[in-house]
Design brief:
alpha+beta, eleven-stranded antiparallel beta sheet, two-stranded antiparallel sheet, 5 helices, globular, binds zinc ion
């Protein structure tokens, strides 16, 4: 990824097998494509601080540091609580960001890139099992077939109800089971976000656009207002009017809209060492002090941000319609240190549009 230039992330549909960890994907939704396959974080570390439910995978960005051999492979992961009610303004309690990296020579992947052919040549059996439903570490298993693994009792019950009940007797008699642990099951579809490949590319130069900026700005404004109105449920017309009224003049928001008009469908902006493109000047969200890395004490720097457009692509259903954010700005250890666990927690600021 080039210096002094922002890279932009877009979504494209892609066959699930091409999002396997061995291809080091950047992706959104479905199950996480873990990088270090052995030292997965424990389910207790990946649960919501508000409601205790297991987090689900939101997205991952493959972002190696080309200048260093320790980070030949490097991926950042974001997880979120699926309960919209845990979403609070400018608060990241319902999120976690993890960083993982590997040298080119490692225990999991070949030194040379894999060919993109669909075959079962990657032995997943020797690594810890993941939850059949959500793809997180699965320390417990179905006591009947002993071949299906789960992160939590909640996911085991849901999977049983939505298909494992029928599949389980079959697994009990068959000697070997070969199934792709990355395929999203029926139960998974009720909890996980829609799966996409995340393509990261250069942002166009300013002049190169012929998009009508004012029109795009209006579109974005409308989208945000509709989303807000949708999350309010049964409120009086008067109240609704209050919430959907024209936002006050906000220079930061105008700059934000103008900049994204070049690529209205962007879901991510990657700019390591740069500055986030904030969505509003009307919030205290950005006043947060970014703490130094807890593992090596080095400073953190801005690395990328998730855009509100992502919400339009992940089937945030009606039951969960209050999952929301303005921008999610991720800050990572400048040194991308090797201390600490395989999956290291990084820092994020969530900035919402306040009304
Ligand atoms: Zn929660
Ligand atoms: Zn699970
Ligand atoms: Zn079973
Ligand atoms: Zn560090």
């Amino acid at each position: 990824m080039a210096k002094n230039k922002v890279d932009i992330g877009f979504l494209e549909e892609k066959s699930n097998w091409l999002l396997h960890p061995k291809y080091f994907p950047s992706k959104v939704g479905g199950k996480p494509a873990w990088l270090d396959l052995k030292n997965l974080p424990n389910p207790t570390e990946l649960s919501c601080k508000i409601c205790n439910d297991p987090f689900v995978f939101l997205c991952q960005i493959y972002a190696p540091f080309e200048e260093s051999s320790d980070h030949f492979h490097r991926t950042l992961f974001i997880f979120i609580c699926r309960n919209g009610s845990c979403c609070r303004k400018n608060s990241v309690e319902n999120f976690v960001v993890l960083r993982c990296q590997l040298p080119r020579k490692n225990d999991y992947y070949s030194y040379e890139p894999y060919e993109e052919v669909q075959c079962n040549d990657f032995p997943m059996e020797k690594w810890p099992k993941v939850c059949n439903l959500c793809g997180m570490k699965g320390p417990s298993h179905c006591s009947k077939c002993k071949k299906t693994f789960y992160c939590s009792r909640k996911h085991q019950i849901l999977d049983w109800q939505k298909g494992h009940k029928e599949l389980c007797p079959q697994l009990q008699i068959e000697e070997i089971v070969k199934y792709n642990e990355f395929t999203v099951t029926e139960a998974g579809k009720t909890i996980l976000f829609k799966e996409w490949e995340l393509i990261v590319d250069d942002e166009d130069e300013e002049e190169a656009t012929d998009v009508d900026e004012n029109k795009e700005m209006e579109k974005l404004r409308k989208m945000i207002q509709e989303k807000r109105a949708g999350t309010l449920g049964n409120v009086s017309e008067n109240e609704l009017e209050q919430y959907t009224r024209t936002l006050p003049e906000d220079k930061v928001f105008n700059k934000f809209s103008k900049r994204i008009a070049r690529h209205p469908d962007q879901v991510l902006r990657y700019d390591r060492g740069g500055t986030p493109l904030w969505i509003t000047g009307h919030t205290e969200g950005t006043a947060v002090v970014v703490p130094n890395c807890q593992y090596c004490k080095e400073e953190r720097q801005f690395e990328f941000q998730v855009m509100p457009q992502l919400l339009n692509f992940i089937n945030v259903g009606i039951d969960f319609n209050s999952i929301d954010w303005g921008v999610l700005a991720v800050y990572t250890c400048k040194a991308s240190c090797t201390q600490g666990p395989a999956y290291k927690e990084e820092f994020m600021i969530k900035q919402d549009l306040t009304i």
